[in-house]
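Hi V.,

You were right to ask for the full record rather than a summary. Here it is.
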Amino acid sequence: MGAPAVTGFESQRRDRIIKAFSEYCDVVEVDVMGNVIGTLGDGDRSVMLAGHYDQLGFMIKYVDKDGFAKFSQVGGWDKRVAYGTRVKIWVGDGAEDYLIGTIAVKAAHLTDAKERDKSPEIKDMLIDFGAKDQEEAEKMGVRPGVVCTPANELTYLGKEGSDLVVAPAFDDVCCVAALIETMDVLKREMPKSLKIHFVATVQEEVGLRGATIAAYNINPWAAIATDVTHAAAPGVSASEVGGIEIGKGPVVALGANFTRALWEMMESEAERLGIPCQRQGVPARSGTDAWAIQVERGGTISGLISMPNRYMHSPNEVISLTDLSNLGKLMAATVKALDGSELEH
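Predicted structure:
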């Protein structure tokens, strides 16, 4: 059985991941869910490293007689940042098969004071993509089930060459990029006792579904998920996010969702190698792939290394490239430390 049908947007991203994984891994496969799985090594113990490559978006529900589209959110959109967003409407299977639309905004001049004090609900928003009526929209390929993503592109924050970059979907494609950094380190010094599965998972934003299937099939001895976490930002105090800041390194998570011996190993390796890192307490579910992996089958040694992120779940997320590099290094160091270790739950 093949992977689910995808849009041009999804297939483009998947193809890029397959190509990148293929430069390092011995085998690269795509499973029934669409997870991309690259395997490196042939040791007796399996280690799973996971980051998701799906992202938030929208799905067309209905096109009205005037050619405007009603839509639903895919994942946890904040209505405040949805309003007025420019989108790509994916009407075909190719990388260029999209239309540009905009989530319609009522001009401030035409609103009363009460309207200006609040954002409209997503159920009340419409996408304008230039169709004159429902019939023309149908000819353009815009119909129920078509998906949309923000049209913003990746760029430097500030000036070119900055350590900070801004784009939609850093949750969580930046961590998939960090997995490739990890591959680069481990390919040169492969742990002998391990078989490492690098998994770019799908459907994390709608229920951790890809990781659940991948963890069941791989049945790893140990697993580390990598995802973004909130960093201090304008309007977000350090105390709200546990003191996490962009540029101060990846974040080791501690809590019931994770194996203590593994998070202690992460921090020990970071200290030994001089890799800057931060720590974050997670008292209950982490909301990441680690939450699904930990309890799959008979349970898995599990951990989470996160990437500081400003403005999560918006069209303009901000991360540090140095943090990304250090995340990859810390992941690789932890995997090498697992080689020959006797970690238990």
